[in-house]
Write a structure and sequence with these properties.
- The chain has 77 residues and is an all-alpha fold.
- It has one domain.
- 65% of the residues lie in helices and 0% in strands.
- It has 4 helices and no strands.
- It has helices spanning 11-23, 28-39, 44-58, 66-75.
- It is elongated, with a radius of gyration of 22 Å.
- The N and C termini lie far apart (56 Å).
């Protein structure tokens, strides 16, 4: 794994990172790793392309409404 050093981080930003890490039950280092990992996952274009793939994959399928499923379950009791 690679190491990464950030210099001259303001106390305000560091304080916010500490608070966020505490809220999420992580160390500051783990919180920064999570932030960086999430930020580089998929670009907007990659996300839209994936949505298009899923739309094509499920095109033409009929999905039941949740209310219909609940009603059907009640009627079968």
């Amino acid at each position: 794994m690679a190491d990464f050093l950030i210099r001259d981080l303001s106390e305000d930003v560091m304080g916010r990172l500490r608070a966020r890490a505490a809220t999420n039950g992580r160390s500051v280092q783990a919180e920064i790793q999570e932030i960086l990992t999430r930020s580089v996952k998929m670009t907007r274009e990659e996300t839209f392309a994936r949505w298009d793939e899923l739309r094509e994959r499920f095109a033409g399928r009929k999905f039941m409404d949740a209310a219909e499923l609940i009603r059907e379950d009640r009627d079968n009791r």
